[in-house]
């Protein structure tokens, strides 16, 4: 994949049509500045939603980093046929753009055996949230959709941790999920040290299966400075760390893989897709040579692995 093709992919992943994306690239070629500057100046009123605009700005920062861009381009056209499914996907039930059916149809075209729907909880965070009642309605929706597909639809949630260490849902609600992804999205105004404490709580929480984008709100320096503690909590509590394949997180992923390369920690690949086009980011998983027995997405039945690990905690 060359620079133009990657540029077009990133625009398509932000809900521009292919035709629009190619036209926009022609204009970008004559622009004296970075992609991030171009997006800010030329595309702020053309994205479908403010959220997709902010997403495109993040993708642009990856494009502007020559090292990241060339890394992505080197694998973007390589298939990932051995990957059995994507374990981090958002739909229009929270802040995603597409329906459950559209995501499942896309997963089918990619040859997946399973797909995990993991919409945000984000309760009382001032964003598009999925409260407990809405989550239970989504579970019913997924069960209804499942009747029409052979591909396994995993009923998941990307759940937030609050300032008091509580999760957004009660235990009674969480137990209805097949897969629980825990995330630190906020430091609540207290900085990286608070974010790290919240990560510790997620690593100790019995309901959490996967830690999404583990460095979020924490940063490399603090994460590395607490390497031994993170390693111990992750192994002791049988957690899985996510390699988040959103382009703007590739550098963090590389850091994560390198520091845990000699451990026995398991990883999962998640595109963190908010549009069906972003599901193509799974090809970026080819950037790392990790033993397949350490990657959840290579297993035919990941829920069996997760259930076994949960039992080790209880």
Search tags:
TIM Barrel, 2 domains, 7-stranded parallel beta sheet, about 325 residues, alpha/beta, globular, 7 strands, about 45% helix
Query: What is the C-alpha radius of gyration, as a whole number of Å?
Result: 19 Å
Q: For the terminal residues, how far apart are their CA atoms?
A: 47 Å
Determine the structural class based on helices, strands and strand pairing: alpha/beta
Which whole number gives the mean pLDDT?
95
SSE arrangement, N to C: HHHHHEHEHEHEHEHHEHEH
Instruction: Report low-confidence residues grouped into runs of 5 or more.
Output: none
Shape: globular
* CATH level 1 class label of the largest domain: Alpha Beta
Q: What is the CATH topology classification name of the largest domain?
A: TIM Barrel
> What composes the largest sheet?
7 strands, parallel
Strand order, largest beta sheet: 1-2-3-4-5-6-7
Helix content: 40-55%
The portion of residues forming beta strands comes to: 5-15%
